[in-house]
What we know:
This protein is of the alpha/beta class.
Amino acid sequence: xxxxxxxxxxxxxxxxxxxxxFDSAPPLRSSGDVSEKLEEFVKRNSIASGNGGARRIVCxxxxxxxxxxxKRCVRYIDxxxxxxxxxxxxxxxxxxxxxxxxxxxxxxxxxxxDESTVQVRHSHSEAVRRAITEHRAAVEEGLLLKLSFTTIFxxxxxxxxxxxxxxxxxxxxxxxxxxxxxxFYVPWKSMAEHKIQSSSGPLDMQLNQVPKMLLVLRKDWxxxxxxxxxxxxxxxxxxxxxxxxALKKYKMHMVIxxxxxxxxxxxxxxxxxxxxxxxxNKSLGVDDVxxxxxxxxxxRHSSYIKSFDP
Length: 310
Ligand code: PMT
């Protein structure tokens, strides 16, 4: 049996699927702008920091991706993610920005003092002041670059661009892939142009499988980066097994296993030889499970970087 050829054939098939996905994707509208911002951000942060070491750059993906059903999109399939995990993790690394604000800050934080003057309500003034100053500082110091996406096409095209630009950062780059990525899509070429008419009866539509890009990210796009992906399940009995399988199959450094209903309380960090339970611990004044999780990841990333020292 020629295992080498077998693996090669599987790899070729995956490469072909990935190529076909990108070929069928509508061109990223903001591609020039994204690549300019990325180049500037990576350049700025690749320069050695004050203490002589290179700065680390983490790509945090967060939120859901949509799969449009029509080119002039009225309907789409969505993948669940509130974006809380990614926001909490990013802010936890630097400063809290908007998480301490109410759900609808514009409507809840402000009030009119007379017909034309708006002011921040006293009850929210500290939270608003912190959110504005700390967010501004992170952006001005070049520590935060936010790139937004909606569709699966935008997400994966951007992920590829980011990966390729982080290649130069070597082991100082980390991927923290918390976005909920669609598994099925309608290829752009076969997508209806206009709104699908309900008068045509039940909708019968074939969806293609979205190729998993994790392996190609690890092997080809950014081979030296420290890669953390997530595994979400609703059935706790299969969660850790699936996380183990993802770790091996996609050659991740760590997979964070989370069960939907308790994802804000507990996650399990799975590595090749450990299963580390990470809990939110309110009694220690820790509000989010992301706080201890990020601490763990920073430690593991540091050891990973050190392993490249001569
Ligand atoms: O945003 P919140 O409401 O706070 O919720 C956080 C979360 C539950 C969304 C998050 O913690 C989480 O688990 N995100 C991953 C959800 C997911 O898509 O899981 P999955 O089992 O389908 O995919 C596993 C990994 O493969 C993910 O890292 C995903 O980025 C990646 N993937 C998935 C599908 C696909 N076609 N390509 C991929 O690369």
